[in-house]
Design a protein that fits this description.
The chain has seven helices and four strands, in the order βααααβαββαα. The chain is mostly helical. It has a two-stranded parallel ribbon with strand order 1-2. The protein has a two-stranded antiparallel ribbon with strand order 3-4. The chain is extended and about 110 Å long. The mean pLDDT is 85.
Length: 264
């Protein structure tokens, strides 16, 4: 490893470096992202998408060659409106058209929030979970109360941190502590009975296998089979108990009849 480097590469080009990270409460962030989508719609996103679809996408769709996993078509904000854009112009203002439009807006908001979560996760993985000489200190400022407390919560703390770095002093705000790196077992062999006894080596590979689509599908089928088997056993037991109860009732009736005969 190059001197001054770390798990992610060589040393920093500029050693006197820090990162100012503007965080936000998750609920507040989600609300801001939803409003951002609404603003995009108000500013003509739908017209832009319709034009792009007519010029570049309609011919591909008609030829059944549409692929939303490649190029610009995989970007957030286009494929979410696919079904709406396939409608003819006259149908887009119909009840079905308006419903598809609402579904597209809702889908766009969902994927936007999901993407923001991935960005936050990337920051933690890149700067807080892999400490080393090439990882700058991260200073977190909460922007949840923007714009009311922007200066107090974000601007002033950021300026004081940068001034301290420039002047060679310790910042007045503590950086975000590094997270302890996870100790990963790379050698233990795990056996997946759900997948026919398949052997997986290493903790990360095992966790990836458990999260895979094929494993989850087999596990779901196994749970359904077990639930069906248990249901059949329960039904058989209930039927057996009902038969036993019916037999006891018949015996009691016969015994009562015998006693009545003796009295006579």
């Amino acid at each position: 490893m190059q001197e001054g480097g770390g798990p992610l590469g060589g040393p920093l080009r500029y050693t006197n470096t820090c990162i100012l990270y503007l965080s936000c409460q998750q609920q507040v962030l989600d609300e801001r992202l939803d409003k951002r989508v609404d603003t995009m719609m108000e500013r003509g996103l739908l017209d832009e998408l319709s034009h792009f679809h007519a010029e570049y996408n309609k011919e591909i769709v008609d030829a059944n060659r549409q692929d939303y996993t490649r190029g610009i078509f995989q970007s957030i904000g286009f494929k979410e409106f696919h079904r709406y854009l396939l409608l003819e112009e006259g149908w887009r203002s119909s009840d079905d058209g308006r419903q598809l439009l609402q579904e597209g807006v809702a889908a766009l908001k969902t994927v936007t929030r999901r993407y923001a979560r991935r960005q936050i996760k990337w920051i933690r993985n890149r700067f807080l979970k892999r400490p080393g000489g090439n990882v700058p200190q991260v200073f977190q400022m909460d922007s949840s109360r923007y714009p009311d407390r922007w200066e107090e919560d974000v601007l002033q703390p950021a300026l004081s941190i940068v001034q301290a770095y420039v002047q060679g002093r310790d910042p007045p705000v503590s950086p975000v502590p590094y997270e302890e790196p996870r100790q990963v077992d790379r050698h233990t062999a795990f056996t997946c009975q759900v997948c026919g006894g398949r052997v997986i080596t290493g903790q990360l590979s095992w966790e990836a296998h458990l999260a895979s689509r094929s494993h989850r599908r087999r596990a779901r089928k196994q749970r359904l089979r077990e639930a069906m088997k248990q249901h059949q056993l329960d039904q058989a037991q209930q039927s057996s108990e009902a038969s036993a109860s019916s037999g006891e009732d018949d015996f009691a009736q016969s015994f009562s009849a015998m006693l009545e005969d003796e009295k006579d």
